[in-house]
Amino acid sequence: MGIALREKEPISQAIFRAPVRISFRIYERWRRATSRFRGFDFDGHRYRYLVDPYNTTWLTERAVEVPIVEREVRDAEARNARILEVGNVLAYYGDFNHVVVDKYESAPGVINEDIVDYSPGNKFDLVVAISTVEHVGWDEQPRSPEKLTDALENMRSLVAPGGRLVVTMPAGYNDYLDARLRDDDLGFDWLGAVRRRHRWSLRWRSIAVGQMTFRPWRSIGGANEIVVGMNRF
Ligand SMILES: C[S@@+](CC[C@H](N)C(=O)[O-])C[C@H]1O[C@@H](n2cnc3c(N)ncnc32)[C@H](O)[C@@H]1O
Questions:
Q1: pLDDT at position 9 over 90
Q2: pTM, 2 dp
């Protein structure tokens, strides 16, 4: 057995191919350098930031939380899974055909029910909520922060065996939620976090939940960190 030697390229061919090789290398360097501006890594997946005029998503946490949840939903759709979204968010950014429960927002097909009371009599393979649970009880009258745990409990009761719950929550918006996240006693099996690279950055990166700072949510730009909570059943 001999070692396979690469045939030497004739000089004429090498001269002809050199510009192609050089441009490819330049392109690859440019692609690697700029990809960190276009996306972020989270839980073993690469995501592109959501850039959409509705809610100027590139400025806010929507840039990262919608792609994370959309991936879950598209995977579930491919399996013909039954999907429930709590809080009407995804419909603003694409075509979806799942059940949506939102207490206050009127839109075609949206079920206007309180998530604490929603009891359709059937279960779902995937239940998702994007930046919604922090409003439950906190932005309602009378204020009742503990209602958030009732909402999560009901959402879990709606997941079928083998299914999952995926919830994104901004940090720094709801003090009660922040305290429960710090103590990790909201009943999630798994928690992950994504944070802006610096305070005003439009770029985000994954961090451990223990590294979170819970910097206050701002009316311009929204959250500095989001938490993703999951349960598998
Ligand atoms: C993320 S916002 C959605 C805002 C808007 N759809 C958007 O993306 O621009 C959270 C949603 O949670 C809904 N919500 C608040 N409390 C609720 C409750 N107790 N049950 C169900 N939905 C609730 C609100 O009506 C609101 O639409």
A1: no
A2: 0.87
